[in-house]
Design brief:
Oligomer: single chain
Largest sheet: 6 strands, mixed
Distance between the termini: 68 Å
Strand order of the largest sheet: 15-14-12-17-18-19
Strand content: 35-45%
Structural class: alpha/beta
Order of helices and strands: HHEEEEEEEEEEHEEEHEEHEEEEHE
Helix content: 25-40%
Shape: elongated
C-alpha cells in the first residue's frame, strides 16, 4: 500500500510538472525520485550488518504454560533500523505439526537490542524453533530486502505434575481394569524411621497422614520417612508402533507415563523404568525416586527415536505401557487410556496396587 501511495504521488507530481512546466514542480519531482531511489537501496545496505539469533539455544517449559523467549538483535550500522520482520517456525517431533509466527521490531545501533515473544506448547516433547529469514525495511517502511538467517532453539516441553491416583495395598487380588492388587508388597518395617512431619500437599497419600498430630493442630500433617525399603517397581516403556504416531499420540504417551510414575513415587516407591533406545540399539534404564528423576527420564525419552514394532528389543518388567496407551501387568491389561480424554481419566480413576 505504501509503495502504491509513493508511486501515485510521483505520478501526480509528474502530471502537474508536465502540464504547467514550473521549476518548483520539476524540483519536487526530482527530489521524490531521489528519495524513492534511496529508500530502495537503503535496505540492501542495512541488511549486511544486521543479524538476529536466539538468546538461548535450549529451553524447557511446562505444557500449556507460556514461555517467554528472547531474540538478540545486532545492528552494526551507523543508523538505526526503523523496522524489521522475522518469521519463526515451531515444529514438533512428528515433523508434521508446524506453527509459524511473524515478529516485528526495530533496532538501535549496537548489540543491546532484544525482542521477546511468548510460546505456549500444546503438546509434550521436543519443539524445534527456527529463524530462517529476516526482512529489513527502509526508514519509511516502503521497501524491504530479505536476508537468510540460520538460528535454532530447542524447547523441551514437560507434562504438568498430575499424579495418577494409586494406592498401594498389601492384600487383595486383581479385580478388573480399574484396580490391581498384590503388584507391590512393602515389608512391614518398610516405613519405620520417621524423618520429619510436614504439612499436607495435594497428591499426598492418606496412608502417611499423622492423624493424632493433625487432630491436635487442626490441620493435616504428613509423615516423611528416613528410609523406605521393599518398595520397588519396574515398568517397560514400549515406544514401538505399527502406525507412526502424531504429536497428539506422543503427548498422551508422555502425559500418562508421567502420571503413572508420579502416582507411585508419591507413595515412596522406587520406579525402575526401561526403554529401547534406537540410536544405540540397546535397552536403557533409569531409577526414579523423585520428580526431578522423572524429568531426566522424559528428556532421554524425547531424544530416543520411536521404532516400528518388529524392530524393537523388549525386556520383562512387572508392568508395560505402550504407544497404544495400554497399561499391562504380567501381560494382563490394567487399563486402556483414550488419546483424547486421558487427562480426565487420570483425574477420575483410582488404581489399587
Amino acid at each position: 500500500m505504501k509503495k502504491f501511495t509513493a508511486l501515485a504521488v510521483m505520478a501526480v507530481t509528474l502530471y502537474f510538472a508536465g502540464i504547467y512546466r514550473q521549476k518548483p514542480m520539476l524540483i519536487m519531482l526530482l527530489m521524490e525520485i531521489i528519495l524513492v531511489a534511496v529508500m530502495m537501496i537503503l535496505p540492501h545496505i542495512l541488511k549486511k550488518k544486521v543479524s538476529v539469533a536466539f538468546s538461548k539455544k535450549n529451553r524447557s517449559a511446562k505444557k500449556d504454560t507460556e514461555l517467554i523467549c528472547q531474540i538478540d538483535v545486532s545492528n552494526n550500522n551507523k543508523i538505526p533500523v526503523n523496522k524489521f520482520e522475522t518469521q519463526i517456525s515451531f515444529q514438533y517431533d512428528d515433523k508434521k505439526s508446524k506453527i509459524k509466527k511473524t515478529l516485528y521490531g526495530c533496532a538501535d545501533t549496537g548489540n543491546n537490542n532484544v525482542i521477546e515473544f511468548g510460546f505456549v506448547a500444546s503438546y509434550c516433547g521436543n519443539v524445534s524453533v527456527n529463524i530462517k529469514k529476516i526482512k529489513i525495511y527502509d526508514c519509511l517502511s516502503i521497501f524491504s530486502c530479505g536476508k537468510k538467517i540460520n538460528s535454532e532453539m530447542n524447547i523441551i516441553v514437560f507434562p504438568k505434575e498430575k499424579p495418577l491416583n494409586i494406592e498401594i495395598s498389601t492384600q487383595g487380588q486383581y479385580e478388573g481394569e480399574n484396580s490391581v492388587s498384590t503388584i507391590l508388597k512393602p515389608s512391614e518395617d518398610a516405613y519405620t524411621d520417621i524423618k520429619q512431619l510436614r504439612e499436607y500437599r495435594d497428591g499426598d497419600s492418606n496412608r502417611f497422614i499423622h492423624w493424632n498430630y493433625s487432630a491436635r493442630t487442626e490441620s493435616l500433617w504428613v509423615k516423611e520417612y528416613e528410609q523406605e525399603t521393599g518398595s520397588e517397581f519396574s515398568i517397560f516403556l514400549d515406544t514401538s508402533y505399527t502406525k507412526k504416531p502424531d504429536c497428539v499420540q506422543y503427548d498422551a504417551f508422555y502425559e500418562i507415563i508421567s502420571a503413572i510414575i508420579l502416582g507411585l513415587v508419591k507413595d515412596n516407591v522406587v520406579v525402575n523404568a526401561y526403554w529401547f533406545d534406537k540410536k544405540i540399539h540397546k535397552i536403557r534404564s533409569k531409577e526414579i525416586k523423585e520428580s526431578k528423576h522423572l524429568t531426566e527420564l522424559l528428556s532421554e525419552l524425547y531424544k530416543s527415536e520411536t521404532e516400528y514394532s518388529d524392530n524393537i528389543q523388549k525386556t520383562e518388567c512387572q508392568m508395560t505401557f505402550n504407544m497404544n496407551l495400554e497399561w499391562y501387568f504380567n501381560n494382563q491389561i490394567i487399563y486402556r487410556f483414550s488419546r483424547t480424554n486421558f487427562e480426565d481419566e487420570i483425574i477420575r480413576n483410582n488404581f489399587i496396587l
